[in-house]
Amino acid sequence: MARERENTVSPRTVFSPYTRLFAVPGARWFSLAGWIGRLPAPMLGLGAVLLVEGETGSYGLAGAVSGTLALSYGLAGPQWARAMDRRGQSRVLRLAMAAFALTGVAFVATVVADGPRWSWFLLAAVAGASGPNVGSLVRARWSAVLDPQGRQTAYAFEAVVDEVVFVVGPPLVTLLATLIAPPVGFLTGVAFGVAGGLWLAAQTATEPPVHPVDPTAPSRRWSVLTPTLLVVVVTYLAVGTVFGGIDVVVIGFAEEQGATAFSGAVLAVFAGGSLIAGLVYGLVRPPGTLAARFVGTAVAFGLAAQSLWVVGSLPMLIACGFLAGLTIAPVLVSGTSLVESRVAPGVLTESLAWTITGLTLGVTAGSAVAGAAVDAWGAQRAFAVPALAGGLAAVLALAGAVLLRGPDRAGAPPAAEQLVEDDIKG
């Protein structure tokens, strides 16, 4: 009996790696602020689709405008991150949040007032460019306060936070846009982003150290784009295309099925599967090196996306969405961990921001192509867009595997693995 008790692992023991993260002073508050600051990620793109489609009736135009916002967000993210690496997060975040609030409101006002269509694209681009990637800022804070063993657990937790955002955000923006008014969904996303960003800016004690530019050093503007980072970013382009395509196609498919108001809940199923997978991934011991894990999870993601070919009803979409969602967090966590393990500390925030840029550029392409596909073929056939993009992600990761050979900077085992072993051993 005593031996059975010794071999029993309690839930508290299993999840202790996560609880230990928040023993770090200030961690729970900067993580919570980051959670709120990330709510615009699922709300603005979907909110822009609902707003523009509601005003014009065109999914093609809605997808193009939403894609423009995502494109500018992706391109501007590394520039904001570079400025924060050099001047500090708090100082730059305050400036960014002021610009984000003004441009977001201006975009909505212009669409509602039926301004020139070119101005919709211009203001969508400016609003997207005004929003720094809050997720990369939080991950940089974790990296600054944890040793190498703690980072995979922290990154897995942040992947779960990302998925909680995508569980909450789509149903919320859909309900606000359909039950109250289309502009309300988008503006609520802006309000969450500004509140979370300013709260994070106020937490100066946990800021990563600043790395000022050495005026005598040669320019490193593009030196951050290492082979490892390039492979991850290019693969994430295809992964992001799946995300952008799904957003548009699910809305169109739900409308065809006479259940537009439930489109956000359907999208939340994808995120729910990813949330579960993220929690588990942070606690298990995946085999192989970080590079092998990244390639393996990308292939699993690509295979799961092929289930979208058989979608013919909302129940089938929910089942396929949950299956595909189970592969999302692992590929995102493994890619982030791989990049972090091989990057110089002075460009960590910028490097992490480039991975998000890959995703958001893919979202841009996915939104635009899927919107045109829905208009031309109908929503059911348009599921071909995210399915093909998922397959491409697997192919790109496999093709880039040769460039990923090399040692990881952090040779210690991931925290979740080591801490569970320590607890079991006493």
Q: Short summary of the structure?
A:
This protein has helices at residues 2-7, 11-14, 16-21, 27-37, 40-56, 59-87, 89-112, 117-129, 134-145, 148-180, 182-202, 227-256, 263-281, 290-305, 314-325, 328-341, 348-377, 379-382, 384-400, 415-425.
Brief descriptors of the model:
disordered N terminus, globular, single chain, mainly alpha, Growth Hormone, Chain: A, 20 helices, 426 residues
Structure notes:
The structure is a single chain. This protein is mainly α and about 425 residues long. Helix content is about 75%, strand content about 0%. It has helices at about 1-5, 10-15, 15-20, 25-35, 40-55, 60-85, 90-110, 115-130, 135-145, 150-180, 180-200, 225-255, 265-280, 290-305, 315-325, 330-340, 350-375, 380, 385-400, 415-425. α7 runs antiparallel to α8 and α12 packs antiparallel against α13. Residues about 1-5 and about 410-425 have low confidence and may be disordered.
The CATH C-level name is: Mainly Alpha
The CATH H-level homologous superfamily: MFS general substrate transporter like domains
- If you compute it from the alpha carbons, what radius of gyration comes out, rounded to the nearest whole angstrom? 21 Å
The number of helical segments is: 20
Average pLDDT number: 79
Task: Give, in order, the helices and strands.
Answer: HHHHHHHHHHHHHHHHHHHH
The counted number of beta strands is: 0
User: Major beta sheet, specifics?
Assistant: none
Which structural class matches the secondary elements?
mainly alpha
Named CATH topology: Growth Hormone, Chain: A
Helical content stands at over 70%
Number of domains: 1
Strand content: under 5%
